[in-house]
Amino acid sequence: MITEHNRAAIISAWKVFKTRDPQQIGALFTEDAEWLAPRNNATSIALNGSHHVVGREPIAQFLASDMYRVFQHVRIDIRHVFADGNTVIVEETMHATVPNGNAYDNDYCFFFELEDRRIKRVREYMD
Length: 127
Hints:
Elements: H1 2-19, H2 22-26, E1 29-36, H3 42-46, E2 52-54, H4 56-64, E3 72-84, E4 87-97, E5 103-115, E6 118-126
Parallel strand pairs: 1-6
Antiparallel strand pairs: 1-2, 3-4, 4-5, 5-6
């Protein structure tokens, strides 16, 4: 039951991320949530930011607005969602346009760890 609930919660989270509403997005995360991406990834470099974002509010800010300084016309195609207990894995492709007008198509894999039905930690891997 926990596994299916968490799987459904993460699928719903992607819909909330699309709202770009920091309050709705923030409500999905624990207060001390972490989002970890590979060091020196292009997005963190372009935003002069960190690959490791800590806290509900900074994560919500990134998902609601900061990422849109690098990516416009974003479309996410989720290919697979796997869940086991409090861990949910999402494989997706993100399509977007970057500031110079070029198309961006990249594959991602996200490991979500949930605690008390909220996202506690995200580990992001990208091609």
